[in-house]
Amino acid sequence: HIYLHYGENGIDDIALPPLGPDNFESINTDAVANIDINIEDAWKTYSETENKRTVTVAIIDTGIDTTHSDLKDSIWVNEDEIPGDSIDNDGNGYVDDVNGWNFVSNSNEICTGEEDSHGTHGAGTIAAAWNNGGIAGITDSTHVKLMVLKALGGSEGKGSPESVIEAIKYAEANGADICNLSFGSSNCTPEFEAAIRDSKMLFVVAAGNGNQYQIGYDIDKSPVYPASLPYDNVITVGNLLFNGHLDESSNYGATSVDLAAPGTYILSTIPGDSYAYMSGTSMAAPMVTGAAALIYSARTDLSLQDIKTAILSTVHKLAPLKGKTATGGMLDVSAAIKWTKN
Ligand code: CA
Ligand code: CA
Question: How far is the CA of 150 from the centre of ligand 1 (A)?
């Protein structure tokens, strides 16, 4: 199985990574000035850009509450599919797949309730509406749409590599550009590697939240997949605490982990029109996914490969990240959106 990046690290399972610290009362919340992703300046640049392209972001995770008032206008719609007629109108092999697909139950039911908090939270970070109260996502939901691909579920957030591979193939076949993967496994099959390696999408992957004691480790030495995959179309993200250090629970790796982004004590959407704080690299990866989508939308002169280069070459360097990440820095969306291609 594959696990979401909360819960224990599976031996032969893919899973959501264990969520990071959940006893927020014990966290020292002394933020340090300038430890932020520089989003307001990036939004200014974005708003001054006239020509924007539409970007589709696939979220392979739990399901997403597509009825959430902060998300309902951000959800990808399969225009070639007629809802509810029990016919596969677009002939893509999936019946009534209007917003995505549930690869766990093999159905078009993409929100099943509380177990979909993890995916709903990431979705909000990426693309919650800007001007309706609640929270603001990194990207503008006018130009960025979220494709909902539920491949993990249950109380532990488990899934199978086969479901994830099928979701990756669905995403690409149905027009996704960028794909968020906030899960991991200590095992990897050749088929799973190939699905990522051979995809034209840009993948943004969570580094994982440490061992059973939630202490981060070096994933160059003890690989976690897909975070440790060395491909050009993968960006791996560690969890930066608001003091400019990696969160203690965040995995690291001078080769495998590209950069860090805020992931601890992140407020975002959860099912039932609600909001909650969550922590972990699963929350850090969507920050970079959202940034990639925002920049790809505004910078129609850039390829997805350029987007990766833009993000990694403009990081805000921080001493504690040196030797723990390939770039030695944290996400700087403003610098990345202004990046000049040589
Ligand atoms: Ca269909
Ligand atoms: Ca239909």
Answer: 16
d(CA 207, CA 225): 9
SS3 label, residue 216: coil
Residues labelled catalytic: 61, 118, 282
How far apart are the CA of 119 and the centre of ligand 2, in A? 24
Pairing of strands 144-150, 55-61: parallel
Residue 84 alpha carbon to ligand 2 centre in Å:
6
Three-state SS at 220: coil
CB atoms within 10 A of CB 313: 13
**Contact (Cβ atoms closer than 8 angstroms) between residue 71 and residue 146:** yes
How is the chain split among helix, strand and coil, in percent rounded to 5?
25, 20, 55
pLDDT at 11 over 80: no
Note the pTM of the prediction, 2 decimals. 0.93
Predicted pLDDT at 337:
98
User: Could you give the 3-state DSSP secondary structure of residue 306?
Assistant: helix
Q: Hey, is 181 helix, strand or coil?
A: strand
